[in-house]
């Protein structure tokens, strides 16, 4: 068994044990209302994490996703009063443009993605406070909220199904398309990939553009549900998304990661945070537990993988 297989086994074990523990120790954890709330939260975190995953696979990182959620929510609130579809399209278009600009700086000017997206993060944060005048902007299209949050089959809604569809599309693209193979090759060894004819520039543009679109779509859908746009909306989403991606097996070094692994990472953290909330844990305690779980998973999966590799080598000898 390889180290990657050991990590996958550990993630699946957590996916079973975490809900099992809280279903036995807290009330209402498995109630339909709580499970629906859980999938609603997954829809937002999942979309943001999916976009971040792509930038990590190509060996980069997008720090601008959290303020992008806030700005897109405000754009929705400003432009989608009469039509939520128009507001969502405006927000997604803005996310696409910002993502392409980030990619342009990384590809053409060879600026580090951390520097590029840090600048974008600062600019977007300032832009969010400017267009909102430092206040919450109401969004009174309640019909749109009723549609987006309509409960289907007890657990799902158009919001959560949108995220599910995005995961399926990205998974198919990475698995079966030439662009998907280019994305993995770009993250594995960019110079060798370029010399081999891999379209590394296209992979980078796609990764950052998709990251911007996913964050913008998440922000606009969240603002519809909350009936407000806020310059501080999604402040903790970068930490949540990065944690879920790493927990889901995405490598910071690039070239490794799958939508399925990320989905499991998002599910584990969401189940954990939901259970801690029902148990009355404070925000500080929740952050501490999240950090401890992430660190333990990384350490244990690494050590377990090394031992399994060592055993397999001894058997071969």
From TrEMBL:
Q: Where in the cell is it found?
A: Cell membrane
Tell me which PROSITE patterns the record gives.
Answer: PROKAR_LIPOPROTEIN
Q: Per the record, GO CC terms? A: plasma membrane
Q: Name one GO molecular function term.
A: transmembrane transporter activity
Keyword entries, A-Z: Cell inner membrane, Cell membrane, Membrane, Transmembrane, Transmembrane helix, Transport
**Transmembrane regions:** 12-30, 36-54, 83-107, 114-132, 152-174, 202-227, 287-305
Q: Does the keyword Transmembrane apply?
A: yes
Bilayer topology: Multi-pass membrane protein
* PANTHER family hit by this protein: ABC TRANSPORTER PERMEASE PROTEIN YPHD-RELATED, ABC TRANSPORTER PERMEASE PROTEIN YPHD-RELATED-RELATED
Protein name per the record = ABC transporter permease
Name the source organism: Proteobacteria bacterium 228
């Amino acid at each position: 068994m390889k180290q990657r297989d050991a990590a996958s086994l550990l993630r699946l074990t957590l996916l079973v044990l975490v809900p099992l523990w809280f279903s036995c120790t807290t009330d209402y954890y498995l109630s339909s209302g709580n499970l629906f709330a859980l999938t609603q939260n997954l829809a937002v975190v999942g979309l943001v994490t999916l976009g971040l995953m792509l930038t990590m696979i190509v060996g980069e990182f997008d720090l601008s996703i959290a303020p992008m959620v806030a700005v897109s929510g405000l754009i929705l609130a400003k432009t989608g009063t009469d039509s939520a579809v128009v507001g969502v399209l405006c927000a997604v278009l803005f996310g696409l443009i910002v993502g392409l600009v980030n990619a342009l700086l990384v590809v053409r000017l060879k600026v580090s993605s951390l520097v590029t997206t840090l600048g974008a993060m600062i600019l977007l944060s300032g832009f969010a406070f400017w267009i909102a005048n430092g206040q919450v902007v109401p969004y009174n299209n309640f019909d749109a909220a009723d549609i987006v949050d309509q409960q289907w089959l007890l657990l799902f809604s158009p919001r959560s199904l949108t995220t599910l569809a995005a995961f399926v599309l990205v998974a198919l693209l990475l698995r079966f398309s030439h662009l998907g193979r280019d994305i993995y090759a770009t993250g594995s060894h960019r110079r060798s990939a370029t010399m081999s004819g891999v379209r590394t520039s296209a992979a980078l543009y796609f990764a950052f553009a998709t990251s911007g679109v996913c964050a913008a779509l998440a922000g606009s859908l969240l603002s519809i549900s909350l009936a407000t746009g806020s310059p501080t909306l999604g402040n903790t989403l970068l930490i949540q998304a990065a944690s879920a991606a790493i927990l889901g097996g995405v490598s910071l070094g690039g070239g490794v990661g799958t939508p399925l692994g990320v989905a499991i990472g998002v599910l584990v953290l969401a189940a954990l945070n939901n259970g801690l909330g029902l148990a009355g844990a404070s925000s500080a305690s929740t952050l501490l537990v999240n950090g401890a779980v992430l660190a333990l998973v990384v350490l244990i999966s690494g050590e377990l993988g090394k031992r399994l590799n060592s055993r397999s080598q001894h058997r071969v000898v």
